[in-house]
């Protein structure tokens, strides 16, 4: 039997256009940054945790809670989450990790048992979260062995996460997962 190890990957390399180009990870909600919420919700569910950031990101030095956390600067600036996921898969492969579980920094509130549910669903194929209102393509469990397929997809010019999930299994959950894309989204949750 194969031993499963999962690296949690917080995706925090976006441009933040709908947030007036602010780093979403640094925005505060209920006295804590979105990154802190994401880290605290994901870390207990995985064996390792990393954060993918833009190549020029330096916001981590301004948040005390980031001390000791592991950050990887993405290879390309603002190429979309699939590039960051592939980069994280390469890192995981180099460290002998079999799967990554991704979480966008602007969707930090996930069920506390999401990792268990996705492992039970499938460890062979990618799986993503689906709520009543939408598919959450970036909240997903990805087998690292699939990275070659995703690299081919990007090489062909398709960077869509929905395309990466063509062989995936949807994990339907009842909980709603808020998405903080605008300042108004954060204000409504305060």
| Shape-level CATH architecture | Alpha-Beta Complex
User: What does the largest sheet look like?
Assistant: 7 strands, mixed
H/I helix tally:
6
The Cα radius of gyration reads 16 Å
Q: Which CATH class?
A: Alpha Beta
CATH topology: Spore Coat Polysaccharide Biosynthesis Protein SpsA, Chain A
Average pLDDT, rounded to a whole number, is: 88
CATH homologous superfamily label: Spore Coat Polysaccharide Biosynthesis Protein SpsA, Chain A
Q: Nutshell version of this structure?
A:
The chain is an alpha/beta fold and 190 residues long. The protein is built from 6 helices and 9 strands. It has a single domain, classed as Spore Coat Polysaccharide Biosynthesis Protein SpsA, Chain A (Alpha-Beta Complex), CATH 3.90.550.10.
Structure notes:
With 190 residues, the protein is of the alpha/beta class. The protein has one domain: Spore Coat Polysaccharide Biosynthesis Protein SpsA, Chain A, CATH 3.90.550.10. It is built from six helices and nine strands. It has helices spanning 34-42, 81-94, 114-121, 147-155, 161-164, 183-189; strands at 6-12, 28-29, 32-33, 48-53, 71-73, 99-104, 127-130, 135-143, 169-172. Strand 7 and strand 8 form a beta hairpin. The N and C termini lie far apart (46 Å).
